[in-house]
Amino acid sequence: MKSLLRIAVLAFAVITFAMPGTAAFAGTPQTKCPVMGNDINKDLYADHNGKRVYFCCQMCLPKFKKNPKVFIKKLESQGVELEVVK
């Protein structure tokens, strides 16, 4: 009986923490440049379709602007939650 209770509690915990929208799946803020991978400079950014993307240097902006969807997808696949801008 104790084993059954342990299994039920464990199953509940796994399901609860594995659900999207929980802390386990919360996106992390952007800290790295999507182009070069260096630390971002909060003064260098581009807005694309309501999302703000930060960069490490001026050289990265033109590369991003050539194909922004690729870089946004890269960040989001890494669990980065981009800032929403209006």
TrEMBL record:
Keywords assigned by UniProt, alphabetized: Signal
Coiled coil: none
Superkingdom, natural source: Bacteria
Gene3D superfamilies in the cross-refs: Ribonucleotide Reductase, subunit A (1.10.620.20)
InterPro entries listed in its UniProt record: Ferritin-like_SF, RNR-like
Signal peptide: 1-23
SUPFAM superfamilies: Ferritin-like (SSF47240)
MF GO annotations: oxidoreductase activity
Protein name listed in UniProt: Ta0938 protein
Species for this entry: Halodesulfovibrio marinisediminis DSM 17456
Organism taxonomic ancestry: Bacteria, Pseudomonadati, Thermodesulfobacteriota, Desulfovibrionia, Desulfovibrionales
